Amino acid sequence: MRSNEFFPAWASPPGETVRHLAAKKNLRSDDLAQALGVSLESLSQLFDGELPITAARAKCLTGVVGASERFWLAREAQYRRDLQTLQADNRQWVSNLPFADMARYGWLKAATSTNEKLQHALEFFQVSTVDEWRDAWLSDQTGITAYRTSPAFTTQSASVAAWLRQGELAAAELSVGTWSRECFERLLPSLKPLTRLHEPAEFIPQLQELCAACGVAVIIVRAPRGCPASGATRVKNGKAILQLSVRYLRDDSFWFTFFHEAGHLVLHEDRLFLEWSDRRELDSHEEGEANKFAGQLLIPPSEEAALRTLPHEYRNIMRFAKNLSISPGIVVGQLQHRGLLRQDKLNFLKKRYSWAE
Fold first, then answer.
1. Alpha-carbon distance 245 to 160, whole Å?
2. pTM to 2 decimals?
3. Which fold has domain 14-95?
4. Model confidence over 223-268: pLDDT tens digits?
């Protein structure tokens, strides 16, 4: 009978078995090295898998520690196959990561060789193996696996995980209080005047400081290659993280996404929520609730009728926006979203942002 093939996510060198059998026979390292006709340094290399077990060494091992020559040669061959599989897996993982962007944005050190990239990436995620990374980032508890919406998920998941990890690192640098949903919900209406400020360098620090008092770390992290996320929220260790990628570099998109993510924290704080850039049905109920929360906070239901009858002339929109303490770009975006205004109209009222290189 033949068992099903098993492909481990690690490679165990036959030297580990040599070490184990030698210990059972109470053989010291120097005695073992002498019996095998190798130096202590070479014995250490054999233990670590750096020195291969040849036919001659297999014969020596059989006489010194036991087991058959066939066993040792099969053990060596299996190790080399496992090592090749593991190395191929490592190379594939590194190629899936948006390494160039991660280095460009300063998340980790630049590297050229696959081994260097692998080491830097493992350090970035604070894991020791790719298999450990999968356990940490592709588990059901983490939440990324809930977003299997396209054939490119494998590449996307690596990019999204990198983006989320950088958000966690950035959040750790902020001084943030204990997460309080009640405090945050009370705060949100008072944040609307910030939408009227033109420069991110002016409104983002204020936004971060105000939200931090309620235990929310507001983080802006540029999306790397392959990452389709525009926003994400989660609560970890008593701190809420509200992460934005500012994918569309416009004030209407930025602020609606912020209040949408805020809605998730207020309404659904129990797990990770990711805003995927492509249209999908996943979480449609929760997404609808967050959309409604953001829309009604920016434009209260009492103003809905006035919005729908608002003349599509920039002075009227400027006045309407000022009365609601929101930016004119948000009003234009909401008119377009409701189908009341063509997508190519009045876009000059939307403020544009750019990344500082």
1. 11
2. 0.80
3. 434 Repressor (Amino-terminal Domain) (1.10.260)
4. 999 888 899 999 988 899 999 999 889 999 999 999 999 999 999 8
